[in-house]
Amino acid sequence: MAKRRILDAAMALLLPLLMAYSLIGEAFHEIAGTLMLVLYGLHHWLNRAWWKNLFKGQYFPPRVFQTVLNLLLLIFMIVQPLCGILMSKHLYTFLSTDGLSSVARAIHLPLANWGLVLMSLHVGTHLGAMLPKGREKAAVLGCLGAVSLYGVYAFVKRQIPAYLFLKLPFAFFDYSEPRVFFLADILAVMVLFSMLGYGIMKLLKVRRKAK
Asked: What distances in angstroms separate CA 42 from CA 8, 78, 119, 184, one per listed residue?
């Protein structure tokens, strides 16, 4: 359990750094992306029992929601690193990618933002198991709720909807802005969608019990 928590925390910390892209430098971005892929592989290895049980048992709405998210993330973690490798200017220059880098670039940016949303939703589906009990739980949820309200503002401020739906073909960064502000905004967006994932799971479980 401890290994999983450490691994998941490392992935959560890497995600906003990857979203910073130009702010952290292209070489570091490629290193961080490669590390994320490795961590994702380890995450699946530690949770390989999920794959063994994929076709076992009944599929109620909460499990359907989690399974769809997991499969979408699997597709993301195959396509996104592949696009990154095709665009590489540092780690993977030994590979011949003539004629493919422009296509990969067009896919990489919107997919990065979809990955931010999907990973955060995924975290939210497991948030219930990570929360403390009693009053502490209410306090933690209250804090996360407050952060997620700012996350709505950050989601719009950083033009993430435009990236998601291909309205902006290039990433725009304010290089005069302290990097910590950008990272804080991305973390707030992560909290927003984690809380959304948590809320969806709670709603689906309540509806299942009601039936």
From this structure: 10, 14, 16, 27
**Type of residue found at 35:** L
Q: What is the pLDDT along the chain (211 residues), one digit of tens a residue?
A: 677 888 988 999 999 999 998 899 999 999 999 999 999 999 989 989 999 999 999 999 999 999 999 999 999 999 999 999 999 988 998 887 777 888 888 899 999 999 999 999 999 999 988 888 888 999 999 999 999 999 999 999 999 999 999 998 888 898 999 999 999 999 999 999 999 999 999 999 887 776 6
Give dist(CA 56, CA 182) in Å, integer: 43
Query: Rounded to two decimals, what is the model's pTM?
Result: 0.92
